Every structure is written in C-alpha cells, then in structure tokens.
Amino acid sequence: MLTDFRLLCKKLGCSLNIISKEAKAVVLMVCDQPFISPQLINQLVEVYETTLNPIVASQYADTLGVPALFNRTLFAKLTTLSGTDGARHIIKKYLQEALAIPFAEGVFDLDTPDDYEQLLLKNNSEFRI
Predict the structure, then answer these.
(1) Parallel, antiparallel, or unpaired for β 55-60 and 98-102?
(2) In which band, very low, low, confident or very high, does the pLDDT at 90 lie, cut at 50, 70 and 90?
(3) How many angstroms separate the first and last alpha carbons of the chain?
(4) pTM listed for this prediction
(5) C-alpha to C-alpha distances, 107 to 10, 25, 83, 103, 115, nearest whole angstrom
(6) pLDDT tens digit string along 21-78?
(7) How far apart are CA 114 and CA 82, in angstroms?
(8) Which one, of 84, 25, 31, 32, lies nearest residue 57 by Cα?
(9) Shortest CA distance to 68 belongs to which of 93, 89, 87?
C-alpha cells in the first residue's frame, strides 16, 4: 500500500506554494495514524505560538515525526522533499530548532489490512468502519 512518494512530495510542494502569505506555519500529518486527535494538533499549535520554534514535532518510538508543525521559513525546504523520509528529513536536519511533543500512539500506523485488524483487536473494535 505504499504510495508513489515522489508524487506525494510534488503535491505537497504545490500545496505549500499556494498557502496564504498570511499563514505563519503549517501542520503536516498523514492519514494512517489513527490516534491523531484535535488535542494533539492544538498542542502543536499552542507550543509553536508560545515558543516560536520553527519545528514542533511529535515524538514516538525514539523518533521525531509527523504530525509536525513547520514555520513558514521552512516551506521552501519542504517543497524539495524526495525519497521516503519525507518531513522527517527536515526535522533531522534542523533538530536543534525542533521541539518534541510526546505522542506514544504515533508509533502505530495503518499500512496493511493486518495493521487494521491489530488495531481492532487492541481497541475492542472501536475503530471498525
């Protein structure tokens, strides 16, 4: 179920180029992390607004990744992404400027039907679609 990452990065670049010039930052996230919540996204924004760090990223499984908030100063860097590392590459490159928000549940993502079945087993079918 792996998407053509180059196409995804190209679309991200196009999207960032049309975001309002008034936008100070953007939150990037993926659709395969079922435990992302409005509270987590709000926390990313609140930490950014109080610290003005250019990156506020989620921390899980000894890594920093998405969902993550990126300041406008990094939009140009985000438009050049390639490979399979995605936004994580930018986070690693600017690690000194990144703040981490704990998101232990971020380690779980849904890449296969088996992942979905495991989610159902662990959560008593509360995620059944």
Answers:
(1) parallel
(2) very high
(3) 18
(4) 0.81
(5) 25, 24, 20, 8, 12
(6) 788 999 998 888 899 999 999 999 999 999 999 999 999 999 999 999 999 999 888 8
(7) 28
(8) 25
(9) 87
Residue 111 burial (CB count, 10 A): 10
Q: Per residue, what are the HEC states of 2-55?
A: CCCHHHHHHHHHHHHHHCCCCCCEEEECCCCCCCCCHHHHHHHHHHHHHHCCCE
d(CA 28, CA 17): 14
Query: Which one, of 55, 35, 60, lies nearest residue 44 by Cα?
Result: 55
Q: What is the overall mean pLDDT for the chain?
A: 82
Band (pLDDT 50/70/90 cuts) for residue 4 is very low
